[in-house]
Automatic annotation (TrEMBL), chain B:
GO terms for biological process: phosphate ion transmembrane transport. It comes from Hydrogenobacter sp. The gene is pstA. The lineage of its organism: Bacteria, Pseudomonadati, Aquificota, Aquificia, Aquificales. SUPFAM superfamilies: MetI-like (SSF161098). One of its GO terms (cellular component) is plasma membrane. Residues 67-270 form the ABC transmembrane type-1 domain. This is Phosphate transport system permease protein PstA. CDD domains: TM_PBP2 (cd06261). PROSITE patterns: ABC_TM1 (PS50928).
Amino acid sequence: MELEGVIEGKLSEVKNRGSLIERVVKVFLGFWALFVGLLFPLLILFILYYEARLAIEKFGVINFLKSTNWDPVAEDFGAATMVFGTFISTLLAILMAAPISIGIAIFITELAPKWFKPIISTAIELLAAIPSIIYGLWGFFILTPIMANKVEPWLQDKLGDVPIIGQLFSGIPTGVDVLTTSLVLSIMIIPFMSAVVRDSFEMVPSVMKESAYALGATQWEVVRKVVIPYTASGIAGGLILSTGRALGETMAVTFLAGNNPQIPKSLFDSFTTITVTLANQFTEADTDIYLSALYYLSMFLFLISLILLSVAKYLVLRLEKRWKV
Amino acid sequence: MKLKTYRKIVNWTMLSIASLMAVYGIFWLFWILGSLLINGFKYFGPELIYLDPTPAGVEGGGLRPAFVGHFIIATLATILGVPIGLMAGIYFSEYGQNSKFFRVLRNITDIMVSTPSIIMGAVVYAILVKPIGHFNGLSGAVALALLMVPVIAVTTDEMLKLVPQQMREAAYALGAYKWQMIKSVVIRAAKVGILTGVILGVARISGETAPLLFTAFNNAYLNLNLMKPMSSITVTVFNYVMGPYHYWHEQAWAASLILTLGVLVLSIVARLVLHGKITNPLAYMFRRIRKEA
């Protein structure tokens, strides 16, 4: 009788301990999940806003974005040159990288022999593993002289006199300009873009492709009329995701943009971006309003990339949902 | 008949273009790695690692503070970042699956993976550098850790989801609590995948420069104090490339080579770990090449 009681007591003790740990573990893990998924982004936003409030009060939103003046001495700050530079270099990089990435994805999913697939995928992924400062170093020492002495004079020679677009190739080719920056950026985002596009291509059920082949379609027609239309939102997601990547790229751009706060009029003009300005001036900001203006810039960058990446995520999720059935 | 030839020509042209695109991607990889290897080895000497930098303008010297500092910052960031990322990832996979709220958080985490890294530097500057009053190594480690947390959380979640549901149910059938099931079944089954994610996370932060620029900053002297500015390979390369001296450029090439090799080796090790062949990578690679050929 007594023994039974003891056993029962022990048993309920073990049970109690187990369920106590159960609850503690759940709450503890849950807190960190909450932190990573919610508190952390909110905290970033709050800190950026808090640090930027001086500049927000002084310059407002529209004026800050409209003004091209960036003068630390006069304490007059406007973000137009940086925002424009960020957008133009990203846009050009996307335009250069998109066809390449789709081509690579087609090659990997449809054309490459089975033994070659892992090799080419790894090679492209290695491009993503190279630290961005290496792209900057390489671009600065190796690519810039070639662009300045060979590529850009050649482009200028061939295209400089064409009406309208000739303007884009005017100026003195220095290599440290919009064109070189966008080119290097495009190389950096190719792995991200082609990975997303490839993954969506692989989601297309083979039944769909086989039916098209059975109707006599060529390989290209299958890609063009079956694979691409059905993965459109995945491709769009990949494009936007890499836009987010390119927007926030700092080190490579810092070496190649020239850090010149002006709106570039030609592809051979030096310019600046939000990230370049931050990297170059953050440690030099000696007044509160200067630092605050820099935080204002980072807040813009954070918000833009947050919005773009959310759209990308939504598009990719939509595609996944469609094929999940 | 005519239409058929036309379609064949289009097919052939477009597919050749796609193959050319692949060649284009590879071309840049070889160019970048090739020039890095050539210049890096040309200027590399063992004194790069064990000598301190000379005063600016005086040739010679090495980058010992940068190597030591980089190692300390990256290690500390890993120690801080990995547990948080793991815990969040486990919760997302094991508890949050059925809650809409946590599924949304999981997607936000996915987005956080791609946040511009320089933002993290600015944020940490506000909370750890400004109040302390000067740059310090600790803030650099925190910035890198924050950068790493979402990466680890996302990969952990994905790896845990690969564990078959039956294994969980088998543990429940034996009367295990959920935490026991997670500890002894899920994590054990997914440990290789988790390790891969951790290594990839370390590889990612090891190459970062932007978050360190205004947190850990730079230091010409060897410094082991976390409360003082600490040098890192990436920030040093940044400063040296921008600097006027030719021997600085040479040292930047050599240091970049070491950094890149380190990061690439980590990425490759991660792949080998995932295939369970870490014990004998060479034999594994050989076998794989033979099998594929």
